[in-house]
């Protein structure tokens, strides 16, 4: 029974805290093991002004076993899967101890956004982007925050991606000029982005005929 | 005492033990000459506990004598806790046998040798499996060893033993690194490992609260009466603390206070989780300890906790390259395993083949198992057919062949016996015919693999059944001994036969991967014939073990012994044929083996 008592106490604590940078609610009143938490993106990062939603499942062994958390909001971050929202964070795995709480875990996620660990990535592609082109990475992460985590992102998540030309390239952190170059050669925009993503290129300089040829080769297939 | 008389005495003592020695005469002759007077002592299994003192003297004699006889074939290894000597490779057949005597308290002494009781099955398998020099340990032995290491370090570093255990666990039992780091900056090491800065270690405090003023535990949010806290004053109820510690006992690492980096001492763990709990932690950290020591190997047999220290680790690579199997035998139950593959002794298949075979089986076995259990091949066009319901009268969609699902025979011959298939044995016929076909297409190659995999797994299953059966038979015979007064010696043939059966089965099992990787040549044909003969002999002996009535078993003693003889003979034949196969380069080289895949 200690688990129930503890979860209720934690809920109460978070709800008492009025600063509102963190929220925690039950998904359904009858089920204490499934919660939703949100927190604000840390200021001075590409995630600033975003509100990130986290899906929380509490195992039966809680608080001796860590809660299972994953992002509901799409995040562009080396330690978070850009596809599933899975999180790579030690305290949610073997570094968990029973004195940690849901609140402290959410705060840890907040600080994870602030200080990524690209050497221990969850999303290898994003980590590569982070390490090779920090400015490009930040641009993409900011763009993701805008379209997925901004105040009115909830309803925008689904269809808005392709509404504006340039969105898809930006979404995958692909250099707009590079896409333009290939478009000038007469290739289809969607195909160019698909190929560049598959090959893992964010940017192809015109001074690199080798990479350019490789992309063209793929495009012609 | 001259070695001659020692050995003769041994021989006599064995004879009076009544072990059946005549069966092993199979290969005796050719070795006798080379070993000369030394032979028996090499075959001797040294009694360890009872006659230690005397034995040691005797063997010292033998060593000095044999040294003069064989020169550098023997080397004596100085050992702190006993005398270890090895009788090296005999000049003619290149296999090494290792014996060691000792009186160590830990590091349980073993003696590896050819015993009369084991017949000659060891010797036959020695064609390509080479016993290593080794020492066996139990988990308790290792814990003693770990404690000893802690004592030593505690003296050197002038810190308490409890602290040393914590530090070693923190350093994953890398004592060199611990020493180095500790000498450079003891404070930093202590801090990193979560030990208090001063050397005197404080144990945590257990507090009992009055009912009127209970303790509110942060972890469970309940009011509790007993609590525990370390010097850091982070206090939790004993239930939560206990659960917290217990969860971590099996991880083999230092356990820290839930809220800070302070490490729990051995005594804290015992206080919280009960006496002896810290031992559990030590046991689990042994995994890292053993992995750190490259020469130490866990016995790969399921649930076996035996540990073996290989004394001549450096030779393993060469042996493997020569196609020999470096094997040891674990102390607790005598499991034989290959040090290189960490797999059961896979004689006659060399390590490389075994590795390929096992990877292959792992990759394909799920598919193969599905195919094997869910489909049959059409007896005419050999398409795999899955039966999804209905009667056993099958019509192949591809070639319109009508056949019986159960016996795969032509349906026309079945007449009116629709649902009761009476024709048995046809399936076996098909498999043996397949044997002779040459392999060409990929489909054929899959079939070929399936065929060998099937044989291999059949014998693997049989091995388990044989083991179970052998122990049942042995216990019934033991019961009979009590009732009818047959002497232990007279019943010993059962144990010996069981060993022969299991080793024959194992040899048979591992000969299939070997055959699988061989190119089809006349030599392979011969090999397969010899293999088939061994299979027959093994099955026949296995059948003997099916006899329920213990009295009948004792009556059939002679048949048992004869069957054993046949198994050993044929096992020998398989092994020597295998040797020829390996030497004749019928076996594709490594790269080829790796490329050869089912699909």
UniProtKB/TrEMBL annotation, chain A:
Residues 2-150 form the UBC core domain. The active site is at 88 (glycyl thioester intermediate). Its EC number is 2.3.2.23. SUPFAM superfamilies: UBA-like, UBC-like. Keywords: ATP-binding, Nucleotide-binding, Transferase, Ubl conjugation pathway. It is an enzyme of class 2 (transferase). Pfam families: UBA_3, UQ_con. One of its GO terms (molecular function) is ubiquitin conjugating enzyme activity. Belongs to the ubiquitin-conjugating enzyme family. This is Ubiquitin-conjugating enzyme E2 1. The lineage of its organism: Eukaryota, Fungi, Dikarya, Ascomycota, Saccharomycotina.
From TrEMBL, chain B:
SMART domains: IBR, RING. Its EC number is 2.3.2.31. It is an enzyme of class 2 (transferase). Residues 1-117 are annotated as: Disordered. GO terms for biological process: protein ubiquitination. GO terms for molecular function: ubiquitin protein ligase activity; zinc ion binding. Residues 213-425, 217-261 form the RING-type domain. InterPro entries: ARIH1-like_UBL, E3_UB_ligase_RBR, IBR_dom, TRIAD_supradom, Znf_RING, Znf_RING/FYVE/PHD, Znf_RING_CS. Signal peptide: none annotated. Residues 78-94 have a biased composition (Low complexity). It catalyses: [E2 ubiquitin-conjugating enzyme]-S-ubiquitinyl-L-cysteine + [acceptor protein]-L-lysine = [E2 ubiquitin-conjugating enzyme]-L-cysteine + [acceptor protein]-N(6)-ubiquitinyl-L-lysine. Transmembrane segments: none annotated. It comes from the Eukaryota. Pfam families: IBR, IBR_1, UBA_ARI1. Residues 7-25 have a biased composition (Basic and acidic residues). Residues 26-61 have a biased composition (Acidic residues). Keywords: Metal-binding, Repeat, Transferase, Ubl conjugation pathway, Zinc, Zinc-finger. This is RBR-type E3 ubiquitin transferase. The lineage of its organism: Eukaryota, Fungi, Dikarya, Ascomycota, Saccharomycotina.
